[in-house]
Amino acid sequence: MPNLQLLGNVKPAHLGLALMIAASALGLLYVLAVKPIYNLLLHPLPQVPGPQALGRQPPALHLQYGADIVRVAPDELSFLRPDAWREVMGYIPRGVPENEKDPLIFRGLNVEDSVIGAPRDRHRVMRAMLSHGFSASRMLDQQPIIMRYIDLLVERLREKAVVDRGIPLNMVLWYNYATFDIIGDLAFGEAFGCLESAALHPWVAVVFSWIKLNARVVQYRRTVPWLGDLIDSVLGRMATEQVKEHMGYARLRRLDAAHRQGRPVPDAQPARGEREPVHRRGLRDHGVDPVVRVVPAAHPPDKMQKVTDELFATFARDDEINFNSVQSLKYMIAMFEEALRIFPPVPVTVPRVTPPGGRQICGDHIPENTKLGIWHYSMYHHPGNFALPEEFHPERWLGEDPRFAHDRKEAFEPFSHGSRNCLGKNLAYAEMRTIMARMLFNFDMRLADGYERWADGIQIHNLFEKSPLFIHLTPRGDHERAHLRSKH
């Protein structure tokens, strides 16, 4: 019998530490002994190559096993085959269960009322309701709002370039200023004032910290699922509180905008269902835009020269550059496609889960409750899909370079695939092309010394965490523009 008196003398802090050590020891035993034996002898996915316990990241596993389908966790697969997009996330007839999004990703975040996490039938209704807001005509309606902040971005950078002559600017930060001012106006009817103050709004810091924290929470849930309750009670609570703070602030902004504009105050539930996707879409799609916009400047000067030549062969005046006109810039379009391939908006996966009874995926029957992952970064950097995958070559998208004749471009889905793909895709494309065209028309851009390998320092926390990238901006005058025009 244990000595209960001795136990009673243990201090709570010491007891908590002892319980943590015991839990860690049991977890280690589970990971190193029990789980591998189960996976080896009893698990329904033993035929798929992959580690028996905790796995490495998908790029390394695909390389290690030389397979386009690998097991990255005991119950999770990663696919590199382009047809996986259709079979995992493609349109499915009514009455046939879909591969739903993994509930583990969203647990505790209450996204069932948003277009991101709504069940299939509710999602269909919500998407139909939202689709008009992202139509071509609506995008043109939003153009004056976005152009106002692009004008302000150019104006503020021109001021900085003149005052701080010779001092490079952190363009990741300045593009973030523009991004969140645009998101603020589109979602709430008012900018955050980032461009005016040359500083990020405190709410933006909450958004970024939530993204990083949620990435850690999800990783812990996936790698040690049996400790999920403990993780959710600590880290999950922190993430949920940050989401509540984010949603509460967003709600106040909506109410204030409605009051100022004389519109009816939105009810709480429709507000979440109708308005929330705008700023969540902004986090996902606009969140990587600063990376996409600066990637071309961080690559060989000959690429920038080609797009600059194309720009001045097309436009004589700044005010000619708009959402429609930039669609004629073929090399710029190819450059952004390549930038999205190198740095996709969401480099990781948002796994789907096979329904009861399992599903036939890429020629194999996959058991029910299996997670299906398509990691964008792995798919786009796989040499079986793209030649010279680690190199930046916009030419691969122009169909003229024989080196890329066998690229499997159907593998490229940077805004996802199927009925749950990104509604804001066309708006994101138009915005980043227009910003880049306006920047190149107004500035000569040169990478600062020491930033040639800038991309090596980028980290992934669901989205890319951008390190500073300093670029020298030299305002272009009328004489220089005329000279560039005369070459064509």
UniProtKB/TrEMBL annotation:
Annotated protein name in UniProt: Cytochrome p450
> InterPro entries, per this entry?
Cyt_P450, Cyt_P450_CS, Cyt_P450_E_grp-I, Cyt_P450_sf, Cytochrome_P450_monoxygenase
Q: Which CDD domains match?
A: CYP60B-like
Q: Name one Pfam family in it.
A: p450
Q: Which domain of life is it from?
A: Eukaryota
Q: Which species does the entry assign this protein to? A: Apiospora phragmitis
- Would you identify the family this protein belongs to, as annotated? Belongs to the cytochrome P450 family.
Cofactor(s) needed, names only, are: heme
**What broad taxonomic lineage does this protein's source fall under?**
Eukaryota, Fungi, Dikarya, Ascomycota, Pezizomycotina
Which keywords has UniProt assigned to this entry? Answer: Heme, Iron, Membrane, Metal-binding, Monooxygenase, Oxidoreductase, Transmembrane, Transmembrane helix
